[in-house]
């Protein structure tokens, strides 16, 4: 062994480096609707970039027609193997565009045609390394692949143009953000904070530990259930227009309220080959959406159980149907004291949903109520259940795409911590590979 290799080895032993990365997740409100964004550094020079958190998207999509001036961005050539792989096609007949748009996007490999052509781009993305306790030094990925499109504006109906610059794809694809920054595992974890002023956190390529103040490793408190990806029909407002997302599904077997199962048509709980039915996780839905028959069954059972707890419903506030005056509810650190909801999952584990996650507080002029935070998906809803952001807050979710398991913590509040308790003070001794 040469002397320099020896010193290099010594250096590596004394200063461990980490191949795991983190990013803060911020909660925003636009017109009273919450959504969540992941903060990364993108372009050269690096710019802070807020990307709508989307677990159902294959690619990161950045609105690079607005203010995108990176000196390192470059299009993906049409007939390149990268383009073939991105378009997921095997006959090498790639779709090309020679049009030039302003900013960083200049034609090349076309990823999607609707509603507009979106092009593939390559640029630098940077994230801090982590040991699961603190962020460390930044690591730059110079070959980060994403698409140039205004998909995030479409999803947010244009409301949040000034807040986010795009969306981040965390779906089951080789070009998702986790896949592109991971070296050693197919694991990422999300912890959404309920507070707009204190961010939650995403961990990439880190199976454990996940430390939250005061020194609690949440990876010790996870339950596991199978997870799988499948195309989901997500949009059917206009007749004959279907959209698909590459969604993550879990197997809900029953829903219990105060320990008693509600009546559910079991057929709805399975996702069929066309992408209807089943229970998927969505970080772009603020509240859980239930197919109408399940919704009615849940509301009625919840109303009945709350009656036995001496709770009297109050005038409902749209879009919710079951609300209670805040005055009439007792509250703990776990939220208002209301009937407990359990999602019974494959592997016979329960995802417990307590007041902080099942109820949302609405304060207006002369109104102060807690409402059951689920919405009616209507008849013919495309999924039986879509578990939305409010129900995910202060829960840690670990997506292991290698073993196809979801680790979930239920509310961290029961362990006296929360997603905003990650210690974001930088520790410069944490070096990336
Ligand atoms: C464009 O980006 C620069 C650098 O981040 C920023 O100072 C400027 O305000 C941005 N302009 C617009 C219109 O967003
Ligand atoms: C892409 O490759 C195909 C088949 O090799 C060829 O016919 C076509 O001209 C190429 N297109 C471009 C834009 O180079
Ligand atoms: C497609 O292109 C790749 C690389 O560009 C090449 O290796 C492969 O043989 C091509 N396949 C066909 C069917 O032309
Ligand atoms: C390539 O795709 C286009 C449109 O999808 C189609 O019109 C054309 O026939 C295809 N070419 C080959 C050689 O398969
Ligand atoms: C997403 O990627 C997966 C895996 O590559 C693929 O099967 C699926 O068709 C893609 N979905 C969309 C909507 O592009
Ligand atoms: C990722 O790429 C590998 C190798 O090309 C392939 O076997 C695998 O199916 C791809 N995964 C997805 C999710 O597309
Ligand atoms: C994987 O790790 C090697 C060093 O072990 C490093 O050079 C490479 O950049 C890493 N790749 C990613 C995607 O993290
Ligand atoms: C890669 O993962 C394995 C186990 O999955 C672990 O033992 C090993 O230390 C990891 N290597 C790095 C460089 O993180
Ligand atoms: C259960 O749902 C399926 C799928 O929507 C439907 O075809 C069936 O009629 C339903 N069964 C009952 C008893 O409502
Ligand atoms: C947060 O992390 C920093 C850097 O490691 C450390 O100095 C500080 O004590 C930590 N804060 C708490 C409250 O533990």
Protein architecture, described:
The protein is mainly β. The chain folds into 2 domains: 16-215 and 421-432, Cathepsin D, subunit A, domain 1 (Beta Barrel); 218-415, Acid Proteases (Cathepsin D, subunit A, domain 1). The chain contains 7 helices and 34 strands. The strands form 6 sheets. A 6-stranded mixed beta barrel has the order 3-4-11-5-10-9. A 4-stranded antiparallel β-sheet has the order 19-18-26-27. It has a 4-stranded antiparallel β-sheet with strand order 22-23-29-28. The longest helix is centred in the C-terminal third of the chain and has 17 residues, at 292-308. The protein is globular. It starts with a helix and ends with a strand. Bound molecules: 2-acetamido-2-deoxy-beta-D-glucopyranose (10 copies). One 2-acetamido-2-deoxy-beta-D-glucopyranose binds at residues 134, 213, 423, 425, 427. It comes from Tagetes erecta. This is Peptidase A1 domain-containing protein. Keywords: Secreted, Signal.
Summarize the structure.
The protein has 433 residues and is mostly beta strands. Keywords: Secreted, Signal.
Q: Keywords for this structure?
A:
433 residues, mainly beta, Cathepsin D, subunit A, domain 1, 2 domains, 7 helices, binds 2-acetamido-2-deoxy-beta-D-glucopyranose, aspartic-type endopeptidase activity, signal, secreted, Aspartic_peptidase_A1, Peptidase A1 domain-containing protein
């Amino acid at each position: 062994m040469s002397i320099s290799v020896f010193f290099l080895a010594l250096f590596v032993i004394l200063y461990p480096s980490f191949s795991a990365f983190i990013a803060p997740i911020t909660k925003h409100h636009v017109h009273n609707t919450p959504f969540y964004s992941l903060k990364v550094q993108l372009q050269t020079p690096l710019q802070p970039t807020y990307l709508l958190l989307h677990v159902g998207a294959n690619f990161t999509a950045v609105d690079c027609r607005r203010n995108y001036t990176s000196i390192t961005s470059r299009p993906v050539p049409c007939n390149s193997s990268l383009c073939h792989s991105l378009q997921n096609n095997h006959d090498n007949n790639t779709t090309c565009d020679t049009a030039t748009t302003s900013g960083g996007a200049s034609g090349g490999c076309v990823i999607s045609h609707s509603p507009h052509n979106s092009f593939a781009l390559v640029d630098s993305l940077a994230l801090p390394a982590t040991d699961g306790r603190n962020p460390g030094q930044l690591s730059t990925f110079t070959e980060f692949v994403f698409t140039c499109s205004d998909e995030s504006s479409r999803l947010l109906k244009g409301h949040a143009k000034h807040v986010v610059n795009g969306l981040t794809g965390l779906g089951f694809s080789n070009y998702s953000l986790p896949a592109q920054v991971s070296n050693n595992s197919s694991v990422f974890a999300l912890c959404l904070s309920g507070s707009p002023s204190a961010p939650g956190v995403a961990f990439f390529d880190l199976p454990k530990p996940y430390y939250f103040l005061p020194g609690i490793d949440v990876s010790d408190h996870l339950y596991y259930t199978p997870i799988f990806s499948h195309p989901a029909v997500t949009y059917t407002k206009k007749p004959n227009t279907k959209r698909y997302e590459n969604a993550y599904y879990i197997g809900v077997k029953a829903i219990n309220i105060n320990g008693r199962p509600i009546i559910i048509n079991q057929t709805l709980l399975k996702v069929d080959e066309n992408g209807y039915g089943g229970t998927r996780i969505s970080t772009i839905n603020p509240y859980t959406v239930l197919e109408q028959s399940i919704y009615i069954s849940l509301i009625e059972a919840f109303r009945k159980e709350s009656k036995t707890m001496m709770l009297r419903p109050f005038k409902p506030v749209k879009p919710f149907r079951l609300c209670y005056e805040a005055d009439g509810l007792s509250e703990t650190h776990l939220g208002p004291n209301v009937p407990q909801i359990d999602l019974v999952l494959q592997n016979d584990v329960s995802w417990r949903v307590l007041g902080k996650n099942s109820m949302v507080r609405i304060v207006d002029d002369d109104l102060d109520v807690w409402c059951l935070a689920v919405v009616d998906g209507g008849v013919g809803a495309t999924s039986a259940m879509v578990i939305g952001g409010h129900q995910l807050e202060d829960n840690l979710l670990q997506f292991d795409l290698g073993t196809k398991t979801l680790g979930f913590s239920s509310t961290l509040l029961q362990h006296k911590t929360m997603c905003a308790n990650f210690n974001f003070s930088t520790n410069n001794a944490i070096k990336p590979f």
